[in-house]
Amino acid sequence: MRVEIPEPLRLRYRQTPEGRSWLEQLPARLEQALHQWQLSIDLAAGAAPWHGHTAMVVTVLTNNGMKAVLKLAFPTDETLLEPLALRLWAGHGVLELIEEDDSIGTMLMERLDASRSLLTAPMEEAIAVWGELMRTLSIRPDDRPEWRQLPRIAGTAERYCDELPQRWSDLGEPFPRWLLESALELCQTRGSVAQRSSNDVLVHTGNLHYLNILASLDGQHYLAIDPQAQLGDAEFAVAPCLWNRLHDLPERNAEEALRRRSSALAQAAGLDEELSAAWAVVREVENALWYLESPGHAGDAQRSLWVASTMAGKTLPGLPSAHELSVLS
Hints:
six-stranded antiparallel beta sheet, 10 helices, globular
């Protein structure tokens, strides 16, 4: 059965020699994985495989009829660490890793119900499930060698101290200095000084938001997907649940409602509320700069600036209201 590469992935990766090479190798890598793990493709006629920004995901059946997925990822620092993180979590709070072959960038994993995520769950339920998952995912380092390969959130904070001011300046100081300094204040305190904090845990630092938490096939529980892992403050993971589902906020006093949502998420996960809010400011300031550096993302930059400044306590004037901000795809 021929599997068509999703067009958004093709458009994204055909822009560079490395991307074009990866696209060209995808069919052969898929065939190799199917052969070595004795899998059959489980796609309806004419159906396309799933995909994210960095990977194609093909639904398959194992030789004993178990439903699973094959993930073929473009090699980045984050995707190369994904199987390592999955081994550390060992199916607790995340989908289970069954097999992997880093020579072809392929993982065989547990299949979840892609039609049931927290994106459409009532917000109270979504927050409770998210908090429970965070408590499960926040494991402390042990003597397994994989821990030594993980990057640290403190290192990310230290890098931001160097990079964010220059990027802000290069863009012509596109937002007030006080907001940049709000982000830098936390980076300075959580940088190298905190490199070996006793509170460090394994953190899903990518996008642990509502759409990346799916129900199991039996509907009994929810699990996280697409982990990008670092070692550090668990509070770093709250931010994606603030920049998603903004249109669920009330039209009146949306800013205060967002801050209440942040507090509720932190409470559900047993996290420090102030530190969660401060990390959200850092992450959204960095996101805003990235969007401003990327043509065609003006609406995304406005969303990030709205969230960052709101969580910093003073929403920037001139931005659209929460219900007028662009929605993440």
